[in-house]
Design goal:
Elements lengths: L1 E8 L6 H6 L1 H7 L3 E7 L12 E2 L9 E2 L1 H14 L4 E5 L8 H4 L8 E8 L3
Parallel strand pairs: 1-2, 1-6, 5-6
Antiparallel strand pairs: 3-4
């Protein structure tokens, strides 16, 4: 069984260590998983590669701009078909062991794209 995981992130270098030093590295070395991290900033068209903006109506914090996210997703979807698309946020539902069974598949190839958001 082989799984392909595309991770979209504004901080791709932050993910280098976990992907190179953990059980995920062993899975990649054995050909069981292919994990590719995509930098959302590469899908911006401004000089400074800005991916976030202040919330509409004011308030604290920043939100991701939809344009670079959608452009990245559309580019990847044009290249391959994905079985699941997961948007990970700080205020989302916790991914616990009882939720993992939803991602167990019997097919030979499985494609997954995870988008790392922030709040």
């Amino acid at each position: 069984m082989s799984i392909r995981i595309d991770i979209l992130s504004v901080v791709p270098r932050l993910l280098e260590s976990p992907l190179r030093e953990s059980i995920l590295k062993r899975a990649q070395d054995k050909g069981l998983a292919e994990i590719i991290v995509h930098d959302i900033r590469e899908y911006t068209h401004d000089k400074h590669h800005i991916v976030d903006e202040s919330p509409y109506g004011g308030g604290a914090g920043m939100i991701l701009k939809p344009e670079p996210v959608f452009e990245c997703v559309e580019t990847l979807c044009a290249e391959r078909t994905y079985d699941e698309i997961i948007y990970v946020t700080a205020d989302g539902i916790r991914f616990a062991a009882n939720r993992q069974s939803a991602f167990v598949v019997e097919e030979y190839h499985y494609s997954l794209r995870a988008l790392q958001g922030y709040r």
